[in-house]
Predict the 3D structure of the following.
Amino acid sequence: MSAPTLRLILGDQLSLANPVLANADVKRDWILLAEVAEEASYVPHNRHKIVLIFSAMRHFAATLREQGFTVIYRSFDEGVSSLYAAVEEGLKQSGADAVLATAPGEHRLLVDMQSWESKLGVPVLLQEDDRFLASRDYFESWASGRKQFRMEYFYREMRRQYGVLLDEDGEPEGGKWNYDADNRGGWRAQTTVPDRPSIAADDITQEVIALVEESFADNPGDLSQFRLAVTREDAQAQFDWFCAHALDNFGNYQDALAEESPWMFHGLISMYLNIGLLEPLAVCQQVERAWRDGRCSLAAAEGFIRQILGWREYVRGIYWHAMPEYAQRNTFEARHPLPPWFWTGDTDMRCLSQALKQSLELGYAHHIQRLMVIGNFALLAGLDVTEVCEWYLAVYVDAFEWVELPNTLGMALHGDHGLMASKPYAASGKYIQRQGNHCKACRYDPKQTTGDKACPYNSLYWHFINRHQDYLTKNARMGLIVGGWKKRDASDRKAIVDWGDRILATALD
Ligand code: FAD
Ligand code: DLZ
Ligand code: SF4
């Protein structure tokens, strides 16, 4: 029998559809999974994320063993320093003469893995991750020759390519590609948010929780609230529950902010998609079936599918298209250090405090909290782009750089000169008030712009418009706002900018 191949599976590649398993010889080849210090500490990951990944890795190793594979599993307490070290030892243990892996989702690790072959002296083959619906080549050919990459056009191509939500003539169901206008409702507690079923932590998960409590004592995350699925079956059950109980309201409240609930009617599946427990096309097809069976509105189904078939694939395309230079971009030269209270949530701004606290405690915030509450504040206050991106990479359970970076640097902070978003997502407190019910319980007033009771988002919004007016004037949509600002009385403008200066000088420590 020829020498075995060592097949490496990373912590976010936990799927039987992982291309590294295609053509594997169950009797001959060895599989390697390793919990290693380097991956677990390149940012202070939320403890929920570490538990999710380690426990899901352990469960997946058990599935592979049931299928007859020989699996080397290195657990965190064995003290393996890096994936490279695990592979080096795995080669010795297995006698393999080649390493096979699926390309990783982060550029830093790709560069590292590309150096392994010469160091190890055996072939190290990296395969494309075909669990995504748009290959890197496909995105490149779509992007070539375009100055701006608009998600909407990319999304339409993806709908056509995968035959999702199309009628018999291949046209969009309902006659429109996009029902975004129906998905912008605000929240006034109009209906009850259903309770999510929780998943009991089994022995493996409990063991991992104990390990993470001890080894990552200083990381964010309240593990007494750990309730994530760690197997494919449980992740699917969570998604089935969403389709039955929350999907129909997803569209109505997609952009809403609620005091009562961190997750409202959102899917809570990004972490499962990102680590391989759910597959993107299957999820979209299940939602399409729900609509065809009359179980949700077309606006809800289209809105949800657009996030996965559109946004998720599109941001990954942007990441690989523009890295590594992308990570250095900083349109507004934003360099103010991250306030320490980003790591505690201790601020009087109610909307921001709630979004930060739940992000730290649970590792979850929905899109509008990430974009229009936390990201918007960081944009308006000019917080350092690199520090903000690292914060997002650390705190969310679903954070991997291929998806985190374009969303944070590009969409929320407009750091990429508008490659991703046609205008900065800058908004005053009035937007947050319209979208939710935080303001009622806040010590600030969203109707005031200056003075002790004034909502800080208001003066910071105008401060941002004022300090970046040269850049913003060139943007058709922002130009009108800058024009309106310049027409205001000079003494009003000065009072607002002075108040913004005061907030920046006092609120960021
Ligand atoms: P739902 O609202 O139920 O949406 C369904 C699915 O659509 C999500 O599970 C996700 O897979 C996909 N999706 C929705 N929006 C996006 C998007 N903009 N980009 C990519 N996929 C999307 N998502 C991550 O998976 N990891 C991240 O690290 C991450 N960082 C973000 C940072 C910022 C500043 C912003 C604005 C967004 C970020 N997102 C990230 C996208 C989005 O906020 C999350 O995917 C979503 O909140 C996850 O919750 P959910 O599963 O309940 O999503
Ligand atoms: C996020 C993460 C963590 C916390 N730990 C591990 C690990 O110990 N072993 C591993 O293989 N993967 C881990 N991961 C996921 C990797 O960081 C991920 O594969 C890369 O960031 C590429 O997306
Ligand atoms: Fe947020 Fe301003 Fe409303 Fe307070 S008043 S909750 S800070 S938007």
